[in-house]
């Protein structure tokens, strides 16, 4: 990912926290020169200073076979906002876009053991809807085992993390404050979130 120095996230924990907050991400692989992407919910954990991304494909999705043959790219991104040049002091200015994006690269390993698959699903439930865990636990074992047959679990050990936040860091304090003020009053949650991230930079 192209990352000018002003926009580089150097705090590893900040990048991890962003991935955990916006954990519905796109996994990209390449097969015979053709890229394929699937959008999946991820669990992001740290083990022995390594970042682990865990998720599962539907077994009917052929992309799961690709993750064994090449490195995968997982893209985490969510809030973004159009930035009008009206906020800039220079007349010779053009519109731009503010956003945050994390690119995580790594080699995937399949989770084939049934108990490990169940653990993965329970971690996912715990993260996304803990209240459902009791209902899940009460489901018949044969129903859950049959479900296991329809998914392919995997985990990726991240070996390259590229993190970018483009939040008008290259603009003046006055310009940034003008952008924050406008975005904070927008009805769209994306714009409000970008305003909050910009305010946190102060």
Helices and strands in order, then pairings?
Blueprint: H1 12-21, E1 24-31, E2 34-41, E3 43-47, E4 50-58, H2 63-66, E5 72-83, E6 96-111, H3 114-128, H4 133-138, H5 141-148, E7 151-166, H6 173-184, H7 189-200
Antiparallel strand pairs: 1-2, 1-5, 3-4, 4-7, 5-6, 6-7
3D architecture notes:
By secondary structure, the chain is of the alpha+beta class. The chain has a single domain (5-169), classed as Roll (Pnp Oxidase, Chain A), CATH 2.30.110.10. The protein has helices at residues 12-21, 63-66, 114-128, 133-138, 141-148, 173-184, 189-200; strands spanning 24-31, 34-41, 43-47, 50-58, 72-83, 96-111, 151-166. The longest helix is centred in the middle third of the chain and has 15 residues, at 114-128. The protein is elongated, with a radius of gyration of 20 Å.
**Which strand order do you get reading across the main beta sheet?**
2-1-5-6-7-4-3
Overall mean pLDDT stands at 94
Strand content: 35-45%
Shape label: elongated
Helix proportion of residues, in percent?
25-40%
Task: Supply the helix-strand structural class.
Answer: alpha+beta
Total strands: the figure is: 7
* CATH architecture annotation name: Roll
CATH-assigned homologous superfamily: Electron Transport, Fmn-binding Protein, Chain A
Task: Specify Rg, calculated over alpha carbons.
Answer: 20 Å
What name does CATH use for the topology? Pnp Oxidase, Chain A
Overall number of domains: 1
Characterize this entry briefly.
This protein has 202 residues and is an alpha+beta fold. Helices cover 33% and strands 37% of the residues.
């Amino acid at each position: 990912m192209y990352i000018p120095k002003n926009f580089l996230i150097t705090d590893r924990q900040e990048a991890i926290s962003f991935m955990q907050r916006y954990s519905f991400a796109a996994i990209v692989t390449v097969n015979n020169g053709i890229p394929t992407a699937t959008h999946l919910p991820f669990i992001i954990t740290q083990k022995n200073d390594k970042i682990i991304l865990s998720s599962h494909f539907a077994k009917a999705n052929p992309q799961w076979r690709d993750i064994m043959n090449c490195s995968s790219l997982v893209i985490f991104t969510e809030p973004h906002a159009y930035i009008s040049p009206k906020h800039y002091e220079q007349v010779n200015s053009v519109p731009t876009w503010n956003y945050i994006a994390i690119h995580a690269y790594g080699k995937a390993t399949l989770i084939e053991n049934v108990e490990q698959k169940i653990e993965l699903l329970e971690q996912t439930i715990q993260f996304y809807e803990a209240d459902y865990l009791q209902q899940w636990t009460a489901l018949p074992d044969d129903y859950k085992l049959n479900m296991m047959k329809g998914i392919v679990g995997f985990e990726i050990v991240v070996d390259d993390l590229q993190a970018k936040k483009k939040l008008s860091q290259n603009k003046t304090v006055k310009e940034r404050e003008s952008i924050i003020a406008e975005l904070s009053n927008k009805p769209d949650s994306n714009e409000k979130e970008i305003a909050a991230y910009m305010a946190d930079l102060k």
